[in-house]
Amino acid sequence: MSGDDHDESYRERLKSALWYSVGKIVDDESLSLQVNVTPQFIGALTELVYAQAENVAKDLESFAHHANRSTVNTDDVLLLARRNEGLGQVLETFIDNAREEREKEDVKVGPARGKAKATAKDKGKAPAKGGVKKRT
Length: 136
Prior knowledge:
The chain is mainly α. The protein has helices at about 5-35, 40-65, 75-80, 85-110.
């Protein structure tokens, strides 16, 4: 299987998974709204969502590349959402909450993450910064 065949196969599997997910969401919503939905509608909506996701991915990659980075980060996502004020506020709130949670976890774990605590016998014997024991 060549690289193009593999890419196309991957793209088709991704579209199938997206079609399934969109179909489940549409089915749930159509039941709650008591409306009928055709398979053609689900297919068209899936294509629309896929095209939008491709555009978002390209934009995020471009923003990261422009900043001389190879990885997309939250700044890129916020930049993408700059024209949608409501979405931007939701994303900023989400990011702030995630940062607060991460800081809480860091405080719980402490700065000596993964290092064994010094025992009473070890105190005074530990090497100074840089791994060299000070002379007294």
